[in-house]
Structures are given as C-alpha cells and as structure tokens.
Inverse folding.
C-alpha cells in the first residue's frame, strides 16, 4: 500500500504549501506541528511531488503518525497525526 487514503479525515489545522518546492513543505509542516497538541491532525496541501516521498519518513522519525495522502488533481492532501 502506498498510503493513499479512501476516507476523509477531519484536520485540526490545514497548511497550504501549494506552489512551494521541496524542502519548504516539509519544513513548514515541522514548524506547524510544534504549535499543535498531541493527537491533533495536520493536513498539508502540496503540489511538490517530493513531498509524497519525503513526508512519511520525516514525520515517523519525529514520532508522529503518517495517516496517508489523497490526490486532488494538481496537488495532494497529506495527513499527519501528532504524537
């Protein structure tokens, strides 16, 4: 399984990184997570293909849970649950 989601997740915060190139979406996501509480869900919108490759490993190394992604035409929605 490649992490693609079929169900909708309700995010506590949405971070719009569309148009930004890697590593900006990853860096902005990490910064946003520092201002969130345990158990909350961050939704990241990214049009950079590198985010799909890099985000799961980065968030899991930091102890968070990668919930998956959902393609939306020209961008992808990524979901992370904080530890």
């Amino acid at each position: 399984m490649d992490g693609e989601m079929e169900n909708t997740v309700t995010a506590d915060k949405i971070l719009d990184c569309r148009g930004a190139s890697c590593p900006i979406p990853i860096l902005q996501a990490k910064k946003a997570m520092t201002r969130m509480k345990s158990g909350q869900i961050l939704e990241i919108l990214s049009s950079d293909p590198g985010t799909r490759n890099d985000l799961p490993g980065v968030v899991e190394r930091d102890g968070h849970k990668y919930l998956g992604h959902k393609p939306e035409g020209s961008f992808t929605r990524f979901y992370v649950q904080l530890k």
User: Anything to note?
Assistant: The CA atoms of residues 13 and 42 lie 5 Å apart. The domain at 13-81 is CATH 3.30.110.40 (Translation Initiation Factor IF3). Strands lie at 13-16, 41-46, 65-72, 75-81. The chain has one domain: 13-81.
